[in-house]
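PROTEIN–LIGAND DATA SHEET

This sheet pairs a single protein chain with one bound small molecule, flavin-adenine dinucleotide, given as SMILES. Inputs appear in the order they were entered. The predicted three-dimensional arrangement of chain and ligand is reported afterwards as a token string under its own label.
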Amino acid sequence: MDVANQVSFLVIGGGIGGLTAALSIAKCGKSVHVLEQAPQFGEIGAGLQLAPNAMRVLSKLGLEDVIRECAVFPKRLVLMDAMRGGELSSLDLGEKFRTRYGQPYAVMHRSDLHAILLEACRDSEQVTLLTDKRVTDVENLEDCVRVTCADGSVYEAMAAVGADGLWSTTRQLFSDDQPICSQYVAYRGTIPTEEILQYARLDDVVMWIGPNLHFVQYPVRRKELFNQVAVFKSTRYRVDSDDWGTPEELDAVFDQCFPAVANAAKYMQRHRRWPMYDREPLDNWTSGRLTLLGDAAHPMLQYIAQGACQAIEDGACLALQISRCGEDIDAALAAYQAERTVRTARVQRTARLFGDIIHTEDEATRILRNAFMQKRTADDFGAVDWLYAPGVPVHQ
Ligand SMILES: Cc1cc2nc3c(=O)[nH]c(=O)nc-3n(C[C@H](O)[C@H](O)[C@H](O)COP(=O)(O)OP(=O)(O)OC[C@H]3O[C@@H](n4cnc5c(N)ncnc54)[C@H](O)[C@@H]3O)c2cc1C
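PREDICTION REPORTED AS:
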């Protein structure tokens, strides 16, 4: 076996969650290595909504100004009827919202956020970024954790953080559960805004909802690009097949929608589809000196746009506990887990429930839902206070 590299903190996975954690730990003055399996750091996918709970962390990390240079700050979150075309509900993201939560609601291209985090990590003397490091094994030793990579390299750290996403290898140390397929699939991508101006609202995040489907639209990158996500439940889903949620189904489903949706859906890229998974919440995601973070710990359906936001919160919370507990790493990991498991489980469950509400096929439920939504006023923040309001301790 190769001689182990002795390091302080290890983050396994260099996605948005892993990089935020590395940066947060570095800000506490600790050194941290990031092991990423890919040959290069990067993000695929399209837009990302960043609610005030995530913006609070990013702002404390000193990234507010660089984010402002490329993000878009929408005026409203709007729910529309995807079949009939009317507005069902909206949330005002203006002055009252910002004052209440102390932060704006931002939308970005996810590769822009990832690049900002990466550059901040590169600028930090405390962060070492390593690529082509696919972690294959994690083993707890006395007072440290040993991590082995596919290339034979070995690292021994005071603590390791598994931030390796939905299909996490590190989670296997805690659980033999598997991602749960929702039978929904997403197509997503961005297009130059001028190509879709006719169907693009540039001031709002718009979510069109209908039976077994939804369609999300918002601008990103200084409004130069327009992001669209088309999501539907496939009637061809089979557990042992990949031939479901096809582009032909996408066309058939969205052709039946209100013309503004049907026409905008024609702009979707079709070369890649994202089947939608989550998992049941875990009570425990820490074993010895390994803990989890982000989608590795609590993958969720994206319906309330919180997966990355929660991963970002995780990183801040972990760093705070590390700085609070000093040399007592076990106490830090225990405090981190105690603080995060309850909240993230609630977010996972709420995302599922919101999916059931927006996708309902039942006519009576739809009528009641719409009546309830239309009664809400745009400055009624009751439903999102628990999610967006300050309360998650963040490293100062
Ligand atoms: C359609 C869609 C829309 C979404 N919209 C939003 C939104 O608007 N707002 C929001 O907050 N969230 C959103 N999400 C959720 C969000 O994308 C994820 O929750 C978030 O990206 C998770 O980040 P992560 O760093 O935990 O995991 P990942 O982004 O999956 O990163 C994991 C990293 O670990 C690496 N890795 C994996 N295995 C290994 C290994 N064995 N060794 C080393 N490295 C490894 C991977 O290469 C990757 O770089 C959306 C998701 C989808 C599918």
